[in-house]
Design a protein that fits this description.
Length: 241
């Protein structure tokens, strides 16, 4: 097994996440599937996502506002657990294509300057949390819904990244507990986890440093571009399923 290549792949994905607050899976998962089965990638990456989010949350700790987003976080957990359970009980390809079309459409509206500003009410937070959590648990597409929601709130760059980081920290912890209960972790995963950790932490550190040098406009465009790419990949994956 090429452990160096595994480390390099997650390094690139983590660097992207360090810059924008999300996107590591967008790069890492398609490439890692060339080396590892999804049955190994999904539970091990949950550990890596938790470690990476912990590191970034510490770096962004002064911008974290947990109470303001408590409904988003709580419903994100509920949505993740529901997605994990429904993963083996319903057909997801049509749902994935519909969700992909939705996030691409909204992202394009934001890209061309169409204003969809909204207040972060408990109800809207709950809907977003359930949708993003379910997408994370069932479709591994948790980023786009919450990114679009936060973009509509007009958050500054640090608050945007900090909120995303805490959200993904909570979802990663939920996944770890869920996979642990399902006994999805094995001793053979340890070398893979070590390689992933090395690449993830170093990549997140570099991405965090790079992010400070980006303008707000460029940061917003990069975030929306990643949402569009993620939606396109999700649609293509469901279409070919």
């Amino acid at each position: 097994m090429d452990y160096l290549l595994i480390t390099l792949i997650i390094f690139i994905g983590a660097c992207l996440q360090g810059i924008t607050g999300f996107g590591s899976g967008l790069i890492a998962v398609p490439l890692l599937t060339l080396l590892l089965p999804l049955s190994v990638i999904t539970p091990t990456l949950s550990i890596i996502n938790f470690a990476m989010a912990t590191y970034l949350a510490w770096m962004l700790r002064h911008s974290v506002q947990i109470r303001q987003w408590r409904w988003l976080l709580l419903t994100g957990v509920m949505g993740t657990l529901a997605g994990n359970w429904l993963l083996n009980h319903i057909r997801l390809d049509w749902l994935q294509m519909g969700m992909a079309i939705m996030v691409i459409t909204v992202a394009l509206l934001f890209w061309f300057g169409v204003q969809l500003k909204h207040r972060s009410t408990p109800g809207l937070q709950s809907v977003t949390g359930l949708l993003a959590g379910f997408s994370n648990g069932a479709l591994t597409l948790g980023g786009p819904p919450v990114v679009l929601f936060l973009t509509g709130n007009g958050l500054d760059r640090l608050a945007f990244r900090a909120t995303l980081t805490i959200f993904f920290w909570v979802l990663a912890l939920t996944n770890i507990v869920s996979f642990g209960v399902q006994q999805r972790y094995e001793a053979a995963h340890v070398p893979i986890v070590i390689c992933l950790l090395i690449g993830a932490i170093s990549g997140a550190w570099l991405g965090h440093k790079i992010s400070d040098k980006l303008s707000e406009r460029l940061f917003r465009k990069l975030s929306l571009l990643l949402v569009i790419i993620a939606g396109a990949i999700a649609f293509a994956g469901a279409w070919n399923a």
